Amino acid sequence: MSIPSPEKRQFKWSPPSICIKNVPGKDQINLLKAGQYSSKALAKLANPECKDGIILPASIYPPTWDKRDEILNKVINAAKLQANTTLTKQKTAAKLDSMDEYY
What we know:
Low-confidence stretches: none
Largest sheet: 2 strands, antiparallel
Mean pLDDT: 76
Number of strands: 2
Strand content: under 5%
Structural class: mainly alpha
Shape: extended
Number of helices: 3
């Protein structure tokens, strides 16, 4: 009996969607659509309002630095419940600029 090569043993799986709440009357926001285009130009053609990915409604996901953990936690929880996927968040202690600001 032969052992399959590593290429044949690999199993690749991607969930069909990971959705988060949207404003009332609109479909949920599918986070996996953020990476569906191979270039920013194609993403811009598909959604002219969008620069790089998905636009989150400010009424639900406040666009402030103070609220970023709240939004990240909603995304992490959606991935856990809908796709049986564990996402983590990390912070770095490396200096990124001359102002000694951390990311």
